Amino acid sequence: MSQPEAFGRYRVIRRLGSGSFATVWLAQDDLLNYPVAIKVLAENWAHQMDIQYRFLEEARILRQTDSTWLVAVHDVDVLPDGRPYMVMTYADQGSVADLVQRGQLPLDEVLRLLTEIGQGITVLHNHGTIHRDIKPSNVLLQSSPVGQRVLVADLGFAKSIDEASGFTAAAGTPGYMSPEQSIPGGDLDVRSDVYSLGAVAYELITGRPPSRPPVRIPPGRIRPGLPPALDELILSALSVDRESRPADAKTFTDRVRTIRMAPDLPQAVPWWQRYRMPWQRTAALLVSLAVLTGTVTASAGSPGLSLTTVRYATQQLRVQVPLVWAREFHTGREVYPAAGTGSEPEPGLLVATDADGWSSDDTRSYGVYATVVPDDRGLGGTGTGPCGSAPRERELDTGVWRGTVWEWPECAGNGSFSSAAVHQPGVPGTVYLEVRQPGYRPDLVDEIINGTSVN
User: Fold this and answer.
1) Please, are residues 368 and 333 in contact by the beta-carbon 8 Å criterion?
2) Which residues does the annotation place in the binding site?
3) I need a labelling partner for 201 at 20 to 30 A (CA). Which of 83, 117, 288, 425 fits?
4) What is the helix, strand, coil percentage profile of the chain, to 5?
């Protein structure tokens, strides 16, 4: 298909890719001044009503779920020749398949991607839908205020769970599809998607998809040093016997998240495992060492955790937070400061695994809350604070920030809680921060404070 000038009001810029059933174009919505991706049914399927129905059903599912973890459909229309097209989110950072091709990913990054992919599939399962074609090229990446956003895409093979019994044709991609998907009348359920999640996990970790089932080689044999729990999880997801797999995408995702939260998670792969052909890859090694130096400088004292910068424009506030906590991002969120004596909540920036549960007395939400308050705000006088016990108090002087940190190493069995009131000498205003984390890491609290700036 030659490049068209426009689809309705959307001006076409270039082709992004094409498959058996559709072509995807990058276009510009000149009315809203925003880039979009437009998926158009291929010409050879224009008169196949079942294919057209499947195409439109994909759009309906994505529109009805309307999730942060799925590609969004903004509009649907029909070309003069009768072919439907859908206007979708443009993923400006490519796909997870592109990441795999660039080289081995840090384990923390792998687990972040798996967590977010799993959340997208969980949304589909809660909607009563099986994806049936989960693979790295069907997971897209988009820029966002907290770094990188994962978007599950391409629901062309998706089916209702209620219709999953007795599929008459195989559907999916070899290497990622469950054994029962290749059998006509395979009586599928959500555990078919769990198998595909296990296959994607295997490839993200090792750089290659798993072998044909039964898969007997754990990813840790290809990439030594993995947590045993991760090997166990992936092999169970890839089990031929679906009764041995995690029950659904949520169960799989929760276990990935638990592994990622472990304080002893390996931070990086030893260089001798990463570069098995040093004479052919000397240049790559030198570049990686340069990048590693910058990364260590930016995240010293934070083993196993990658940091990302979030911004609160209203207060000109920037804070570096662990990427693992950046599941939900809110600005202007009103929180009662645990170290404050006032009765009014302060609007600020909140990045957390569960923003709604942040202020609960029995929260397992981990993240960072930060705000800028006047110097006379009256911070201090914490009493027992949010944890029912007196805090440890210490003075902080990083050379840039001075102030006080109050810490509760154990907070009602939900990890640790820290609050801090810091200021820059000679600069008006006090930055108040709260940090909730699964373990007691005062070094990480200091690193977050060091990565904070107001300008």
Assistant:
1) no
2) 39
3) 288
4) 30, 25, 40
Bridge-based pairing state of the strands 307-312 and 392-397: unpaired
My answer on whether 413 and 437 are in the same domain is yes
In a domain, 199, yes or no: yes
Helix axes of 191-206 and 228-237: crossing angle, nearest 10 degrees: 140
Tokens of 421: 């009131």
Structure tokens at 411: 């907070």
Rounded CA-CA distance 191/350 in Å is 35
Q: How far apart are CA 424 and CA 429, in angstroms?
A: 8
Residue 264 CB neighbours (<10 A): 7
**For the chain, what is the domain count?**
3
Residue numbers of the domain that contains 22: 6-88
**Cis link prior to 224 (omega < 30° from 0)?**
no
User: φ and ψ at 120, to 5 degrees?
Assistant: -65, -45
Instruction: Give the per-residue pLDDT at 298.
Output: 36
- Which residues are part of a known binding site for ATP? 39
Beta strand extents in 44-132 (DSSP E only): 73-78, 84-88, 129-130
> Which residues of the chain have a pLDDT value below 50?
167-168, 268-304, 341
Q: Are residues 243 and 337 in the same domain?
A: no
Rounded to 5 degrees, what angle do the CA atoms 149, 367, 335 make? Answer: 110
Q: Which two tokens stand for residue 447?
A: 């690193």
Which phi and psi angles does 64 have, rounded to 5°? -70, -35
pTM: 0.60
| Site of tokens 């000679």 | 426
Looking at residue 297, what is its pLDDT?
A: 34
Q: Is the dihedral of CA 228, 229, 232, 238 positive or negative?
A: negative
The active-site residue out of 29, 133, 154, 189 is: 133
Q: What is the dihedral of CA 288, 143, 446, 404, to 10 degrees?
A: 160
DSSP state of 259: H
* DSSP conformation class of 427: S
Question: CA distances (Å), 218 to each of 16, 130, 203, 293, 385, in order?
Answer: 35, 26, 11, 31, 46
Active site residue 254: no
Please write the tens of the pLDDT for every residue from 17-73. Answer: 887 689 999 999 999 999 999 999 988 777 788 888 889 999 999 999 889 999 999
Q: Within 10 A of 241 (CB to CB), how many other CB atoms are there?
A: 10
